Amino acid sequence: MDKIILKHRPDLWVKVCNCGNITQYKTYGSYTANKHRNSPCKECRYKSHSKKLSGRKRNVFSDKWRKNMAIAHKNSAVWKQSMNTTEYKEIHRQKMLRIIKENKLSVAYNQKACEVFNYLNKKLNWNGLHAKNGKEQVINVFYLDYYEPTLNLTIEWDEKHHKKAKQKQRDGFKQKIITEQINCEFYRVDDITKLVKKVDHNSIDRTHKLQQVINEYYEN
User: Fold this and answer.
1) Which of 4, 12, 98, 209 has minimal Cβ neighbours within 10 Å of its Cβ?
2) Same domain for 139 and 170?
3) Using CA atoms, how far apart are residues 187 and 131, in angstroms rounded to an integer?
4) Would 58 be classed as within a structural domain?
5) Contact in structure between 197 and 187 (CB atoms under 8 Å)
C-alpha cells in the first residue's frame, strides 16, 4: 500500500540531509536505492570536495605531453576526415566572425605594450587604437595590437612566443590579410630587443621616429 502511495506522490520521494537540505528523487527506484545510504546532499558534497582541494596546486602539463597530445589529435580519424577540411575551416572562421561581432570573445593583450602605445600617442600626437583604450581595431577576424586610422598605420608587438615557427607562420598570414585589405604601413616591434622593423611595401618609413620614441620610453 505504501508503495502505491509513493508512486502517486513524488513529493514523498525525499531524504533529509544532516544539514537540513532535502534531496528529491525522480523515481521510486532511485529513492529506495538511496534512502538508507548515509550520503550527503549535493551542497555538502561540493563543500567537502572544495575543502579537500583547497591549497593544492594544479599540475602543469609538460611541453612533451602537450606535443604528444597534438600529434595524437592530428593523427585521429576525426581530424583527418572532418576537421582538417576547407569546409570545416570556413565554418569555424564564420563562427569566429560572429563571436567577435557579438563582443563575446575576450582577447588577451600585452599591457606593457599598451603603455608604450599610449606614450606614442602622447609624444607624436597620434590617436592610435589599442586594447587599453578600448578601441582595438578588427580586420577580418584579426585584432590589431595598434592602429592609427589617420595615418593608416599598424604596429604589432611580438612577444617571445612569436619566434616559434608555427606562430611565425600565423603572423605572416595575419600580416598578409591585413596589408591586402587596408594597405597600411605595417611595423613589428620585438618585445625582447625593442627594435622596430618595417614589413610593408609602402614608400613612407617611420621606423626611425618610432624607434626614438620607444627608446625614450624605456630610458625614462
Assistant:
1) 4
2) yes
3) 17
4) no
5) yes
